[in-house]
Write a structure and sequence with these properties.
Layout: E1 6-11, E2 14-19, E3 21-24, E4 31-34, E5 40-44, E6 49-54, E7 59-64, E8 77-82, E9 89-94, E10 99-103, E11 112-116, E12 123-128, E13 135-140, E14 144-149, E15 155-160, E16 166-171, E17 178-183, E18 187-192, E19 201-204, E20 210-215, E21 222-227, E22 231-236, E23 243-249, E24 254-259, E25 266-271, E26 278-282, E27 291-293, E28 300-307, E29 310-318, E30 322-327, E31 342-345, E32 351-356, E33 395-400, H1 410-418, H2 426-439, H3 443-456, E34 483-485, E35 538-540, H4 585-593, H5 599-602, E36 607-611, E37 614-617, H6 634-646, H7 650-660, H8 662-665, H9 670-686, H10 690-699, H11 703-706, E38 754-756, E39 763-765, H12 766-775
Antiparallel strand pairs: 1-2, 3-30, 4-5, 5-6, 6-7, 8-9, 9-10, 10-11, 12-13, 13-14, 14-15, 16-17, 17-18, 18-19, 20-21, 21-22, 22-23, 24-25, 25-26, 26-27, 28-29, 29-30, 31-32, 32-33, 34-35, 36-37, 38-39
Helix pairs in contact: 2-3, 6-7, 7-9, 9-10
Catalytic activity: S-ubiquitinyl-[E2 ubiquitin-conjugating enzyme]-L-cysteine + [acceptor protein]-L-lysine = [E2 ubiquitin-conjugating enzyme]-L-cysteine + N(6)-ubiquitinyl-[acceptor protein]-L-lysine
GO cellular component, one term: lysosomal membrane
GO molecular function, one term: ubiquitin protein ligase activity
Length: about 800
Amino acid sequence: MEKMSRVTTALGGSVLTGRTMHCHLDAPANAISVCRDAAQVVVAGRSIFKIYAIEEEQFVEKLNLRVGRKPSLNLSCADVVWHQMDENLLATAATNGVVVTWNLGRPSRNKQDQLFTEHKRTVNKVCFHPTEAHVLLSGSQDGFMKCFDLRRKDSVSTFSGQSESVRDVQFSIRDYFTFASTFENGNVQLWDIRRPDRCERMFTAHNGPVFCCDWHPEDRGWLATGGRDKMVKVWDMATHRAKEVHCVQTIASVARVKWRPECRHHLATCSMMVDHNVYVWDVRRPFVPAAMFEEHRDVTTGIAWRHPHDPSFLLSGSKDSTLYQHLFRDASQPVERANPEGLCYGLFGDLAFAAKESLVATESGRKPYAGDRRHPIFFKRKLDPAEPFAGLASSALNVFEIEPGSGSMSWFVDTAERYALAGRPLAELCDHNAKVARELGRNQVAQTWTMLRIIYCSPGLVPTTNLNHSMGKGSSCGLPLMNSFNLKDMAPGLGSETRLDRSKGDTRSDTVLLDSSATLITNEDNEETEGSDVPTDYLLGDVEGEDDELYLLDPEHAHSEEPEYVLPQEAFPLRHEIVDTPPGPEHLQDKADSPHVSGSEADAASLVPVDSSFSLISVSHALCDSRLPPDFFSALVCDMLRFYAEQGDVQMAVSVLIVLGERVRKDIDEQTQEHWYTSYIDLLQRFCLWNVSNQVVKLSTSRAISCLNQASTTLHVNCSHCKRPMSSRGWVCDRCRRCASMCAVCHHVVKGLFVWCQGCSHGGHLQHIMKWLEGSSHCPAGCGHLCEYS
């Protein structure tokens, strides 16, 4: 539904009247331009080239410039500009590299005037000189800029930026001979049209391609630039070196930027992708737009203020095939919806809280914070009280500082540096990380790692040399005795379901032997039983088996409803007939010591009656293996990870994710994992743990995380001998034919980690330079410079 408010503006002898309105186009628009009397607008695109009259209530189509039976690439427009001195003169930039001028005063249907075919690739931008009617400037994807005199058939000057493609060119409004150009490598160049051999000034404006620029209509030295780094920067070109005076942070790549007439600090922007809105910014408020137009449903491709002296009307074209006239009065103001409250933790635990001044009561005992500002925290400088937004969304800042030393995060740094996340078996990783956590006093974390080892790691076989107990003091190959106790002294409450507690020993046995005499159990090296308060006839040895492997059977206290366990006499098939007479304990000892007895027979389960008051039972591991699969604990492990993440220990959650890998990763959704990874990486980078952060990114299987260290990073390297830029084709300089990365100590080419002095540019292998500077502060290359390495 159209907004019905109207504005009438008197501009000299003309009057502008209108409202917010739009019209549907035949195809998406790439660019728009307004004639000097603000009565007509031209819309150009790949499939559209029309002129519309701007009336009070609507847009009216006046002229279609795409004539002819055959479609021509000359009509596929990437940009269009209407001359501000001659209302009949238009120029378009074609996608095939042709620059076309149009004369609307011609009587024929075809208004095409001249064609310039000197560019080899797409022309991105065309611009008329503000005061010279016959001077036209173009910038192309081929990296060249050409200046055309419309009275001639070819260009009069060619400017080479010695760089990548040209994205925008703009004549200065105040300087007759000056124009600015922007490039995809992030540079901005200033040229004098009288000197096409070299630029007057060049500087790096953005981290990435610079898509647009615009000179300030009133301030002679101000140039606004917008780039892919989502920033709009205002440069003061009147100084000896370009000085950044303002920087506006947007949420998407900036495709167009236009200064607002009659408003010194306002400019309009639109994005190249993602964001469809048109924003008007006050550069003194770099984070909150002053106005926002939300009518378009696709990317806005062109914006233009209707009149150079009227700040009320803004025109825009979009890929949604619509042309809009926006009334500034109808724009939404995000500052009205801005939240003046904020809460944030500092790196070392300080808490900052911002709220409306009316809500923050002044406490008599509170010490004033040195950083308190009564102006909104997003202002860069002290506000002018005459500004209309001086009192909007103002906040008072309070900072609650922690006691010195109470919020130390040394445990986080130590844990991150000492944890092992890959390169070892799972059992060793869990044991190592548990040891690290235990040494740092984090016992719960250590216990968690230990439990993970128990769940996911199968116990290995233990050699007999590690056994703590044996039958007989002098026996060399006795039967391993792990647990021995007397049933006479057992509490009556211990039944068949009683389980033996595990101890810390490293030995393992599948046999439980019960004897009325403790004299058979002797081990001088057993530290578990020395000095123990346990009676001599009730001794528990070291057990590392499963809980369900060991049972105590007492016929006097057995539950009647439970089935009786019937054990076979032998665990393995018999190879020969065995005498049915059960041997006594002495016979059993002799048989175990005998070399003719096989290991399977010695470990076999047997029920040996020793006395009428108790029973001797041994349960074989092969008969009672109740180990649960690791997948049984997956839900529990996932809950554990979420618990640590909710408690703020995202380090533990990510470390377990990496160590366990696919064992648990499949049970946690990708979005949650990505959130944990990004939080942990952010913490690591805050503490400058760059190597650990890179390792976490590398070990991650999430695409969104693994691509963090694969983003485009440009490193410009100059030759240390001739100081010329190096190409990316090898280690040899193209100009002086010498190896640029020679180690000053060993005089070999450095192909790995390279360190150099920023003062003399000499360097070499990291270890070599460190060792050299331990004994001398002079440069190892012999240049005499005093180098430092910290």
